[in-house]
Amino acid sequence: MPLIAVLPGDGIGPEVTREARRVLEALDLGLSFEEAPVGGAGYLASGHPLPDATLALAKRADAVLFGAIGDPRFEKLERHLRPEAALLGIRKALGLFANLRPATLFPGLEDASPLKPEVVNGLDIVIVRELIGDIYFGEKGHRTTPDGLRQGYDVMSYDEQEVTRIARVGFEMAKRRRKKLCSVDKANVLETSQLWRDVVTAMGAEYPEVELTHMYVDNAAMQLVRAPAAFDVIVTGNLFGDILSDQASMCAGSIGMLPSASLAAWSGANGMYEPIHGSAPDIAGQGKANPCAAILSAAMLLRHSLEDEASAQRIEKAVAAALAKGARTADLGGTLSTAAMGDAVLSELQ
Ligand code: NAI
Ligand code: MG
């Protein structure tokens, strides 16, 4: 019986994760669920944002369903005690180097995007973001310059192996889709990007069926607004992927629509699945949050960790059907509560 670790976290995390779990339970796949606190909730329960028992559960489980972390009450704590430390810690501990962030425009949501309907029409892209390297994990600190000035520094680095494994995911993803891979870097300025481009280009020879292009990140930011639907798969580093995927969410109408998968291998392995949004303290506890990103993350869990493509598609079709009938939370211009949106998806599953 596959074990799903459920880590609801903070703010709207528990509200949206509840709906995702209800959808998984309704499919009757014989899954077992075990819940544990993480983030601010972990700190309150045990004095640490990533309690040992929570990490042990995540390691033991076949997959992790994650909500969101972040709690304004704990912002003043030291960095390693803040809720955000739990997220970086769990990604690193599970070796989740590949972050898949699909951005799809569901039919009927054309008007929800701040971009013109004709620009976002047909949007169906996947951003493959490297997740446990780059400037987020390099040496960092504060020091004083010889002139006596305070200086902060963060070191950006990638080795060949780190680039190779994420490039592989990008090519495999593109091969299964529309066979277009755009590698995003800043090779005109950065040494890490030079290496990145060399490795990706060399791997391209193994995938003659995939059309490989390279784009500088500043141009990619522009193209994502000018013609987002022209992309198929984008592969990029941790920092660039973080920024570009939030940007892409606006093409899909709302940040409440975007799921993600964080993987330690292409498929069949332990992975973590979570909406790309945070804990949204401004709407937490009000039953207003859109649970679609969490529900679609559950679909990705079935696809990548349990290799159950049919059930994944059942969930995605149910979300599409509910939206097509006009089910909308406030972020999409509607009035449904989180639970009512979950109900709307559940009733399409039958
Ligand atoms: P956020 O994603 O929590 O919220 C940004 C805006 O989007 C807010 O106005 C919020 O109400 C809205 N929003 C987000 N999710 C929504 C949903 N499902 N339905 C409707 N509206 C939604 O980002 P913010 O405000 O920058 O960060 C809040 C906290 O979350 C911080 O502590 C931050 O560190 C944390 N965070 C955690 C992440 C994670 O757990 N993966 C990712 C991003 C931020
Ligand atoms: Mg981000």
Report on the structure:
NAD(+) binds at residues 278-290. With 350 residues, the chain is α/β, with parallel strands linked by helices. It has 2 domains: 1-102 and 258-350, Isopropylmalate Dehydrogenase; 114-251, Isopropylmalate Dehydrogenase (3-Layer(aba) Sandwich), CATH 3.40.718. It is 40% helix and 18% strand. The protein contains 12 helices and 12 strands. The protein has helices at 13-26, 40-46, 52-60, 83-93, 117-120, 160-176, 191-204, 217-226, 238-251, 292-304, 309-324, 338-349; strands spanning 3-9, 32-35, 63-68, 98-104, 124-130, 140-144, 150-154, 180-185, 211-216, 233-236, 261-263, 271-273. The strands form 2 sheets. A 10-stranded mixed β-sheet has the order 2-1-3-12-11-4-5-10-8-9, sandwiched between helices. Strands 6-7 form a two-stranded antiparallel ribbon. Helix 1 links the parallel strand 1 (3-9) and strand 2. Helix 1 (13-26) crosses helix 10. The longest helix is centred in the middle third of the chain and has 17 residues, at 160-176. The radius of gyration is 20 Å and the shape is globular. It starts with a strand and ends with a helix. 49% of the residues are buried. The mean pLDDT is 95. The structure holds 1,4-dihydronicotinamide adenine dinucleotide and magnesium ion. Magnesium ion binds at residues 242, 246.
